[in-house]
Amino acid sequence: MLEKAQQLKLQFEEKVNTAKTPADLEQLRIEFLGKKGAVASLMSELRNVPNDQKKEAGQIINEVKQFVENTIKEKNIELQKLEEERLINAAEDYDVTFPITEEKGSYHPITLVQRELEDIFAAMGFSIEDYDEIVDDYHCFEALNIPKHHPARDMQDTYYLSTNQLLKTHTSAAQNAILKKYTPELEADRPIRVIFPGRCFRNEKIDACHENTFFQMEGVMVDKDISISNLIYFMKTMLSEVFQQDITVRLRPGFFPFVEPGFELDIQCTICGGKGCPSCKDSGWLELCPCGMIHPNVLTAGGLDPEKYTGFAFGLGLTRLAMMRYGIKDIRVFNSCNLKSLSQFENATFTSPDKEVK
Ligand code: FA5
User: Fold this and answer.
1) What pLDDT does residue 338 have?
2) Which of 153, 200, 216, 228 to mutate to test the pocket of ligand 1 (most atoms within 8 A of CB)?
3) Tens digits of residue pLDDT in 225-268
């Protein structure tokens, strides 16, 4: 049995070294670990082994099985990485001989509204940061005062990867890294002022105002003596600049473990004027920009002393803002790749001239 097990291990080692793609590896997994695979077949031979040798033989087979499982896991991570690189390189190849047509593309409405907001916040001294879409549990939840098994996790179910990572459910997932990165600003007596837009993912029931893939824009400001008045000032300025017209908003208490106190900032639905329609789930209001004062535990996790510093954070629903800004009735338009709908924005302009869309 020992000899057979060693042979099987050698056979596997030879084959695993020739696997080039995750698909090759899956084939190999079935061949060795499947119900009718090589390991199972060796296991079935145990019945012919004398009783006093069965235990040892069983252990030997289990060791080989463990070896095969671990090697496949490690190799899979390696091959997934290579596959990702291959896809990225392939995407960068383009055909320079492709005929030019008269039809011009246009910016996506979310890009338009994102850039407009970036201009508004940049003018108020905010830096703009980009952050990963794949994050770990710590950054998405724990660093935000949401420990494992906290009921608040139920509000943001998402897609988990085999690497123990997940697709970020909110842009708040970057807060911890941003606070750490910008600590030198505070040390130089300058406030931390950063916005970080990004794509978010949730396992969500889709309707006219909920998508499973949508955009948010997070903002944080930290300094000595930052208060709710500062938060309200920035929210008001942002909304009046974006809409350039009177819009009705309401501020009400909201619970998020990473802020205290927390607020929900809702906008009166611009599609129905507050009467109620499918875009606002018949309520007349749309949750747009939850916000609040950063919880001391979040500041501490970001390496800051909450006795010395305070700050606010907001998580603006960028996709919903684009709906309200452009009168788009159904959120599903954004991810539809429907060129007819999206081409309506080809004449839209940004506020800053260098980014004007032609
Ligand atoms: C959050 O995601 C918090 N991280 C926001 C926050 C940041 C609060 C900082 C306090 C301080 P919420 O789950 O409510 O909260 O989402 C924020 C906004 O994103 C919502 O108001 C909404 O405009 C938008 N949003 C949330 N889920 C969806 C969805 N499925 N489809 C489209 N937009 C969504």
Assistant:
1) 81
2) 216
3) 999 999 999 998 888 888 887 788 899 999 999 999 999 999 99
List of the chain residues with pLDDT < 50: 350-358
CA distance 125 to 106: 29
DSSP 52-65: HHHHHHHHHHHHHH
Residues 325-355 have pLDDT tens digits of 888 999 999 998 887 777 777 666 544 334 3
Distance CA 176, CA 299 (A): 8
User: From ligand 1's centre to the CA of 209, what distance in Å?
Assistant: 12
- Counting every residue written for the chain, the total comes to 358
CA–CA distance, 78 with 350 (Å, rounded to integer): 43
Which residue, 121, 159, 128, 104, is CA-closest to 345? Answer: 104
The predicted pLDDT at position 347 comes to: 62
Among 231, 320, 331, residue to substitute to test ligand 1 (most atoms within 8 Å of Cβ): 320
Does the Cβ of 223 fall within 6 Å of ligand 1?
Answer: no
Name residue 233's amino acid.
Answer: Y
Start-to-end CA span in the chain (Å): 74
Report the pLDDT value the prediction gives residue 264, as an integer from 0 to 100.
95
Q: Note the pTM of the prediction, 2 decimals.
A: 0.72
- Residue 239 is encoded by which pair of tokens? 């909304």
- Among protein residues, the one with the nearest Cα to ligand 1's atom 24 is 317
In eight-state DSSP terms, residue 222 is E
Contact, 318 vs 216, CB < 8 A? yes
Q: Is 214 in the pocket of ligand 1 (CB under 6 A)?
A: yes
**Cα–Cα distance, 232 to 245 (Å, whole number):** 18
314 lines ligand 1 (CB under 6 A): yes
DSSP-derived letter for residue 343 is G
Give the model's pLDDT for residue 346: 65
DSSP state of 321: H
The pLDDT value given to residue 136: 96
Cβ 104 vs Cβ 342: under 8 Å: no
What separation in Å is there between the alpha carbon of 169 and the centre of ligand 1?
A: 9
